[in-house]
Amino acid sequence: MAHSERHEEVLAGLALGMPPGADGPELEAHRSRGCPRCDEILAQMELAATALAAEAGAVVPPDALRARILSSLGPSRASRESYSGPLAWRVAAAAAALLLVAVGLDDARLRREREDLRSRSAQLAGRLQTAETELAQRVLRARVLESDDVRMLTLGGKGPQPNAQARVFWSARARRGVLVAGQLAPLPPDRQYELWVFLKGKPVAAGVFDADAQGRALFESTDFPEPQAQNFAVTIEPRGGVSAPTGPIVLVGSPQQG
Amino acid sequence: MSQKRDDPDRAVMLRVEAREADALGELYDRLGGRLLGLARRIVGVGGEAEEVVQEVFLHAWRAASSFDPTRGSVLTWLLIATRSRAIDRLRSRRSASRPETRSLDELGEGPAAGDDVEANSSVRQWATLCRSAIRQLPEDQRRALELAYFEGLTQEEIAARTASPLGTVKTRVRLGLMKLREHMRPYWESGTHGA
To answer: In what order do the strands lie in the sheet with A176-182?
Structure first.
C-alpha cells in the first residue's frame, strides 16, 4: 500500500510515544516493505515534538541535585588507552602539534595538565581551556582513528595557498572523517573553508570549518555521504558552505599519495 | 536530517563520553534547569521530578556513546530521555490507580519555570523559536499536542478529554507535528544549534 496520511497519523502518535493502536499492524507492514519517507517523517516528528518541551520553561537547577548526581557516578576513568602509530608526515610545527595529539599524546597527560592548571591562578584559565579543548578533540578524532578500517590521504596546497598542508583520516564504516590542516591563511568573516569528498569524480560537500589564528584547523565531518571516497579537496566558500564548489581550491589530494 | 555542526554542548558531551565527571557537572549546569522544568511540568514539583533528572544524567553518563549528533542536539537527546521517564512515571501512577491530582508537595513551593532563569544563551534561543512555532499552531492542534506530550494521553484519551471525534484528534496531532516540523526545519538546517 502506498504511503498515505493514515500512515502519518500513526507515525505522529509514535513520535509522541503513543501505542500504535489498531492501525499499527498496517503501518508495520507498510514499513516492512521499505518506506524511506515514513522513516524520515517519524524522525522529524520526534524532533518536532521536542519543541513542546520549551513550553515547560526552565528552573534554576538545584546544587543539591547536582551533588547527588555526581556522587552517584562512582569512580570516573583516570585515563584512556594511548595511541601510538607511525606517522611520517610532518607539516609546520603548529599543525604537527595537532597531529601529535591525534596519534601520540594520551589523555593522562592532558588530564594532568588540566589538574595542574586548575591549581594555578586565574591567569592560566586560557591554558586550561586549551587543554580541555584538546582532550575533547582527541576523543572526537578517536572515533575515526580507532576504527580498524581507517584510511589516510595527504592533501597539498594549491592556488592561493601553496604552503597549506593537510591530512584526512576517514573510516567508511564509521562514515566519519577528520581533517587536520596547517598553514592555512586567515579568511574574511564571511568566508569559510569547505571540505569536499570526491565520488566518481564529483565533489560532494562534507562540511565547513575555520582555521585558528595560527592557521591550523581540526575538523570532524560526519557528513561523509558515501563510504567510497576517492579524493578530497578544500575550497574557500561563503560562510555556511555551498552545495557545489564555487571558490578557489586551496588543498587537494590524490589517492596515489595516500 | 541536517548535520548539526555547532551544537555548543557537544564538546562537553565528548568529555562525558571520556568519563569525566566534571564534564557531567558542566552538562548539568548547562541543561539541568531545562530538564528539571520539563520533569516538573509532567510529574509535578517534588522529589519525583528530581529523581527523573538524576536518572537522565546517569543515563547520559552510562550511555554517552549512544548519543548520535546526526539525529539532534545533546539537549534534544536529554529532553527526549526526560520526557520518556517522566511519562512512564505518570502512566505508572495511573495504572496503580493513584489519584491523578498531584500532592500538595508536588504543587508546593517550587519556583515557577520560565525562560528568564535560562543562563544558556543557545538554549534560550532554541526556546524562543520553539515558543514562536507553538504559538502559530491553531488552538485545537496545540491543545492536542500538549495533552499528548505533557500528560501522555493517547489519541483515544485526547478525543474523550476534548469531546472530539477520534479521527479529528488524529488529524490535529498529525497536522500539529507537521507544522512544528516546518517551523523548526530552517533552524535545524541552519546548524546553529541542534535542538
So the answer is: A202-209, A191-199, A231-238, A249-253, A151-158, A161-171, A176-182, A217-221
Q: Which residue has the cell 495511573?
A: B94
Cβ pair B129, B187 in contact under 8 A: yes
Residues of chain B with pLDDT under 70: 1-6, 96-119, 190-195
CA-wise closest residue to A217 among A255, A180, A258: A180
Torsion of CA A118, A120, A126, A127, to 10 degrees: -80
What is the ipTM for the molecules in this complex? 0.88
Helices (H), A51-118: 63-71, 93-103, 107-118
A222 interface with B at CB cutoff 8 Å: yes
In a mutational test of the B interface, the residue from A4, A7, A47 whose CB has the highest number of chain B CBs within 10 Å is A47
Chain B residue with minimum CA distance to A176: B70
Pick from A26, A38, A52, A135 the residue to mutate for testing the B interface (most B CBs within 10 Å).
A52
The pLDDT tens digits for B138-194 are 999 999 999 999 999 999 999 999 999 999 999 999 999 999 999 988 777 765 544
- C-alpha distances out from residue B16 to A31, A35, A130, Å: 36, 36, 17
Do A57 and B115 touch, CB atoms closer than 8 A? yes
Q: How much of chain B is in helix, strand and coil states, percent to nearest 5? A: 75, 0, 25
- Tally Cβ neighbours within 10 Å of residue A145: 18
Strands A231-238 and A249-253, by their bridges, are antiparallel
Tell if the CB–CB gap between B131 and A43 is shorter than 8 Å: no
CA distance A230 to chain B (A): 22
Instruction: Please compute Rg for chain A using Cα positions.
Output: 23
CA-CA distances (angstroms) from residue A159 to A182, A194, A211, B100?
A: 16, 15, 17, 70
Q: What is the pTM of this model?
A: 0.58
* CB distance B61 to B24 below 8 Å: yes
Q: Which helix (H) or strand (E) holds A231?
A: strand A231-238
- Among A64-68, A100-104, A149-153, B126-130, where is mean pLDDT lowest? A100-104
Q: Are A194 and A211 in contact, with CB atoms under 8 Å apart?
A: no
